Amino acid sequence: MAISLPAMQRVRERAKTIICQSNLRQWGLIWAAYTQSNHELFPKWWYRDGDHWEQYRRRWIRKLHRHAGDAALCPMATKLVNPAGEVAGIKYGTDDWAWGRLGPVGTIGWDLYGSYGMNAYAFFPDFAEGSVWEQYEHLYWRTPHVNGAERIPYHLDCAAWGMRVASSNPPPADKGRLQSGGAMGAFCVDRHDGGIHSFFMDWSTRKVGLRELWTLKWHRKFDTAGPWTKAGGVQPEDWPEWIRRFRDY
Predict the structure, then answer these.
(1) Helix %, strand %, coil % for the chain, to 5?
(2) How many angstroms separate the CA atoms of 76 and 62, rounded?
(3) Using one digit for the tens of pLDDT, what is the confidence trace for 148-204?
(4) Which of 2, 118, 166, 173 has its CA 20 to 30 A from that of 34?
């Protein structure tokens, strides 16, 4: 039995890996279908419903969740941080907890939760002229049909529903806890033995090492040789202790 238990554990972990990657492929099919019906473009950043303006990305994530079912949750993070929505506003998840509901169950006409999140640069920017965000329009991926799509993350294991990261974002100082000011920390969650799973803009899915996150092309001007990469000069002792044992990139 002592010999078989580790083998059984490996089988269970492998099964969860397969389920997680399958979930992300389902998300990929949904996003691919949308872009194909939208002239090969991603959703716009904003939409207007009567007199109400809302971020398109949140609206579309909500809409896609209704079709995703169980695919909204990585098998390594199926419990919600606020299962009844008792605390208003989305609450961040962790390595093994999914991010939670926007509000108390039954008080809103839709539900939003999960353990995957979007690369927030994978949208078509349509910021208002003169908006503070207009200066960032050149960073956004408007379509998946770009060079190097296999290195551009789209939908990933995440402790939030979406994040806009920067190459200077530090990793979380403590395992399982987001670090203030470091949006990359939402993706730097140890769910799959030193990595997470990601769906890319070439519609492929694979495991990404936690330190590898800083080498991916998150937006058009993202520095893939930034301060948290080997090319950028990061040293082993620069990493928080919990992440040092994982592979470097």
Answers:
(1) 30, 15, 55
(2) 21
(3) 999 999 999 999 888 899 999 999 988 877 665 579 999 999 999 999 999 999 999
(4) 166
CB 192 within 8 A of CB 17: yes
pLDDT digits (tens, 9 = 90+) for 120-130: 999 888 777 77
pTM over 0.90: no
CA trace torsion 225, 229, 233, 237 (10° rounding): 170
- Residue 3 located in a structural domain: no
Q: Which among 61, 50, 42 has a CA at the least distance from the CA of 219?
A: 42
- Asked whether residue 237 is assigned to any structural domain, the reply reads yes
* Domain presence at residue 1: no
Task: Flag whether 117 is in a domain.
Answer: yes
Q: Which helix (H) or strand (E) holds 7?
A: helix 4-37
Give the residue carrying structure tokens 């040092």: 244
Instruction: Please give the tally of structural domains in the chain.
Output: 1
Domain span holding position 162: 10-243
Decide: residue 248, CB within 10 A, 0-12 exposed, 13-18 middle, 19+ buried: middle
Could you give the C-alpha distances from 165 to 88, 115, 230, in angstroms and in order?
24, 18, 19
